[in-house]
Design a protein that fits this description.
Structural class: alpha/beta
Order of helices and strands: EHEHEHEHEHEHEHEHEHEHEHEH
CATH architecture of the largest domain: 3-Layer(aba) Sandwich
Strand order of the largest sheet: 8-7-6-9-10-11-12
CATH topology of the largest domain: Rossmann fold
Oligomer: single chain
Distance between the termini: 22 Å
Mean pLDDT: 98
CATH superfamily of the largest domain: NAD(P)-binding Rossmann-like Domain
Radius of gyration: 20 Å
Number of helices: 12
Bound molecules: 3-phosphoglyceric acid
Largest sheet: 7 strands, parallel
Helix content: 25-40%
Low-confidence stretches: none
């Protein structure tokens, strides 16, 4: 059985070592394709793989066509919008993710982006504190819950809106529950996005929502670029000199935003929310264990297609 790690953005080396141990202990063989720059490299490596471990790597119909021996793809992470699920199903390939395994890392980055914005991008001028400020968590999943836990330590006043999570779950954590996204954006100076990119959420963070945010608004995006209506965000930044956008996913209009709003817009150069040794270990080893379990016992617990 051949298991391929295909990561354009590699795991920490200790995570690769951990994955290798799990795969070899299961009696399987490990192949590694890291930092590839051409899709053809991925297609070639996938040809003989029975399983593939990926991160944000694009796995589309062409990859499934090339990977004749493929039975399972595990996205070591949360979001699987990079995998064509319909094509996977059509090729009888199981797709899984590893929910929760990298969420603390992403949450820590979200809070650091808030501090960075509050302290005027560390430019030496007098900034503000997070203590007592209203934080709106948009979607109370694994990352949202970790953001809430850490934000409590900062003494923030925490609100959340989640269309699917029962209010009792949030209330139990001491979070104030909003009945709509509008209420969350209207109430909170800081909003942290933790929604997946789906047909419903794409482009959904628009001027109508952002325009509701109170004075000195800060929008934090460690989720996906696709959920933002980028043209309308640029319009809000133009209209509101008090509005800041800090993100871990470079927008399509990065050059424009950089030029026009250098003191109110920041992006990491490459998505790094889950780029910690711990998150790589957790997600990578979970992916390897899920694959070993799938081949040995047929377990499909984390199947998403
Ligand atoms: C996720 O969905 O798990 C995060 O966005 C991390 O993605 P990455 O593995 O590409 O860093």
């Amino acid at each position: 059985m051949k298991i391929l790690i295909a990561t354009e953005k590699p795991f920490a080396s200790e995570a690769v070592e951990g994955i290798k141990q799990v795969i070899e202990n299961a009696g399987f063989e490990l192949a590694i394709l890291e930092k590839y720059t051409q899709k053809s490299e991925l297609l070639k490596a996938a040809e003989t793989a029975n399983a593939i471990i990926i991160r944000s790597d694009i796995i589309d119909a062409e990859v499934f066509d090339a990977a004749k021996e493929l039975k399972i793809v595990v996205r070591a992470g949360a979001g699987y919008d990079n995998v064509d699920l319909a094509a996977a199903t059509a090729h009888n390939v199981v797709v899984m993710n590893t929910p929760g395994q990298n969420s603390n890392a992403v949450a820590e980055l979200a809070l650091s982006l808030m501090v960075y914005a509050a302290r005027n991008f560390f430019d030496g001028t007098s900034g503000t504190e997070l203590l007592g400020k209203k934080l709106g968590i948009h979607a109370y999943g694994n990352v949202g819950r970790n953001v809430a836990r850490i934000a409590k330590g900062f003494g923030m006043d925490i609100y959340a809106y989640d269309a699917f999570c029962p209010a009792e779950v949030m209330e139990k954590d001491g979070i104030k529950v909003c009945a709509s996204a509008e209420e969350l954006y209207k109430t909170c100076q800081y909003v942290s996005l933790h929604i997946p990119a789906t047909a419903e959420t794409k482009n959904s963070i628009n001027a109508a929502l952002l325009g509701l945010m109170p004075k000195k608004a800060v929008l934090v995006n460690t989720a996906r670029k696709e959920v933002i209506n980028e043209a309308e965000l640029a319009k809000i930044l133009e209209e509101r000199p008090d509005f800041k956008y800090v993100t871990d996913i470079m927008p399509g209009n990065d050059a424009e935003l950089k030029e026009k709003f250098p003191k109110r817009y920041f992006t990491t150069p490459k998505k790094m929310g889950a780029q910690t040794a711990e998150a790589n270990n957790n997600a990578g080893i979970a992916a390897a264990n899920q694959i070993a379990d799938f081949f040995k016992t047929g377990n499909t617990k984390f199947k998403v297609n």
